[in-house]
């Protein structure tokens, strides 16, 4: 097998791009489409991509790991290509055969064998229950690293099991059902209400995206720090026909917006907001109800995923929860990595005593220069 290392998305050959893109990679958030748009819209100034691609003996891409390096950092630290827009991360495996775990092992072993050695590896937003995630930690440990997982978020979800929307909604609490139904009747009686849902490329896409952003900016949430992210994500998802962008209008004005990403297996509630002016009208719940109906009755998804976070309203709409963790792995084979591991393990007073020595060592290091060739064969 061969591992290719790319330091730019533009370097990736078209045949590799096709194998790692959606739908060949059915998990959109592990696809090249996602990592490319995330980097171009929000990570361009902070990280240099470092993309590992595993090719089989026939030269076809069968797995990838999308990472990054801070070019200004003095430490040799490899990190996941993630930020606050990310919902999950793990190796991107194309093949659905029994090779899944072997592919991960090949990628991790290659990274561990690179020279100069990595002092630290940090991966964020990994779903603990995935066997692939556990394999990453095991392989890092077997390759000379000391992995330390840490809790980051809860992930609430609902497994449909073929449920219709009526089945699903009848299984929610009576308080939720009654509240949503009462507010919907009151809203529709007092106002002219309409809902637009965009699922693919159309003449209305830009208008609905603009209305969604307007709602978001008038909500309780902070405006997006990277204004190109949402329009780009909407355009990519629309082209792939996995977009479910819904906006609810009250008397012709956008009052609530929700950004869902629906693949054949899963519906992901990615972002939502409502205009504070319409808070008491329940516009967010009314829009949620419609998008749940679309996902269950029309898209027939197997799971609805409410993203990361422990907000109380998520528990009302969902039925199960899982942990999302990060992992920091320290290289026991390097002096810097061993010292960082020691500071991780010892009590705070001793860690404080070691910090000056670590700072001195860090100051002596040159800024990290990643110079591994773009392709290497194991």
Properties at a glance:
alpha+beta, single chain, 14 strands, Aminopeptidase, elongated, 378 residues, disordered C terminus, 14-stranded mixed beta sheet
Task: Please characterize this protein's 3D structure.
- The protein has 378 residues and is α+β, with helices and mostly antiparallel strands.
- The protein folds into two domains: 2-153 and 323-377, 3-Layer(aba) Sandwich (Aminopeptidase); 161-301, Aminopeptidase (3-Layer(aba) Sandwich).
- 38% of the residues lie in helices and 28% in strands.
- The protein is built from twelve helices and 14 strands.
- The chain has helices at 14-20, 32-43, 100-113, 131-142, 165-170, 174-190, 205-217, 229-240, 283-298, 312-317, 335-345, 348-364; strands at residues 2-6, 48-55, 61-69, 77-80, 92-93, 120-127, 145-159, 193-198, 243-250, 253-262, 266-274, 303-308, 320-331, 375-377.
- Strands 1, 2, 3, 4, 5, 6, 7, 8, 9, 10, 11, 12, 13 and 14 form a 14-stranded mixed beta sheet that branches.
- Strand 11 (266-274), helix 9 (283-298) and strand 12 form a beta-alpha-beta unit.
- Helix 11 (335-345) packs antiparallel against helix 12.
- Mean pLDDT is 91; it is low at 368-378.
The main pleated sheet reads as: 14 strands, mixed
Query: What is the total domain count?
Result: 2
CATH superfamily of the largest domain: Gcn5-related N-acetyltransferase (GNAT)
Q: What's the order of the H and E elements?
A: EHHEEEEHEHEHHEHHEEEHEHEHHE
CATH topology group of the largest domain:
Aminopeptidase
CATH architecture field of the largest domain: 3-Layer(aba) Sandwich
Overall pLDDT: 91
Distance between the termini: 7 Å
| Helix count from the secondary structure assignment | 12
Level of helix content? 25-40%
CATH class assignment of the largest domain: Alpha Beta
- List low-confidence stretches: 368-378
State the shape. Answer: elongated
Structural class by sheet pairing and helices: alpha+beta
Rg, alpha carbons: 23 Å
Please count the beta strands (DSSP E, at least 2 residues each).
Answer: 14
Beta-strand percentage?
A: 25-35%
């Amino acid at each position: 097998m061969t591992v290719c290392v790319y330091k730019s998305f533009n370097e990736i050959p078209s045949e590799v791009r096709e194998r790692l893109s959606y739908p060949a990679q059915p998990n959109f958030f592990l696809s090249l489409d996602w990592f490319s748009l995330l980097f171009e819209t929000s990570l361009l100034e902070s990280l240099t991509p470092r993309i590992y691609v595993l090719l089989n003996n026939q030269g076809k891409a069968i797995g990838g790991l999308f990472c990054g390096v801070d070019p200004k950092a003095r430490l040799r630290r490899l990190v996941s290509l993630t930020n606050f827009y990310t919902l999950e991360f793990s190796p991107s495996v194309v093949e659905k055969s029994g090779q899944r775990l072997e592919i991960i092992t090949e990628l991790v072993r290659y990274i561990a064998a690179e020279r100069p050695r990595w002092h630290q590896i940090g991966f964020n937003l990994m779903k603990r229950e995935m066997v692939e995630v556990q394999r990453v930690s095991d392989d890092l440990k077997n390759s000379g690293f000391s992995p330390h997982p840490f809790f980051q978020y809860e992930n609430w979800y609902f497994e449909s099991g073929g449920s219709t929307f009526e089945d699903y909604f009848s299984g929610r609490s009576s308080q939720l059902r009654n509240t949503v139904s009462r507010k919907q009747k009151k809203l529709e009686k007092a106002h002219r209400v309409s809902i637009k849902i965009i699922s693919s490329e159309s003449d209305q896409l830009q208008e609905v995206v603009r209305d969604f952003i307007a709602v978001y900016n008038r909500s309780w949430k902070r405006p997006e720090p990277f204004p190109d992210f949402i329009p780009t994500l909407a355009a990519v998802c629309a082209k792939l026909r996995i977009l479910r962008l819904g906006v609810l209008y009250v008397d012709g004005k956008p009052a609530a917006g929700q950004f869902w990403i629906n693949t054949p297996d899963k519906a992901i509630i990615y972002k939502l907001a409502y205009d504070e002016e319409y808070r008491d009208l329940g516009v967010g719940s009314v829009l949620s109800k419609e998008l749940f109906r679309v996902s269950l009755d029309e898209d027939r998804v197997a799971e609805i995923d409410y993203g990361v976070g422990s907000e109380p309203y998520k528990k009302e709409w969902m039925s199960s929860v899982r942990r999302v963790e990060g992992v920091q792995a320290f290289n026991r084979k390097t002096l810097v990595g061993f010292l960082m591991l020691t500071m991780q393990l010892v009590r705070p007073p001793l860690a404080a005593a070691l910090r000056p020595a670590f700072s001195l060592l860090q100051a002596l290091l040159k800024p990290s220069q990643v110079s591994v060739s773009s392709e290497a064969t194991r």
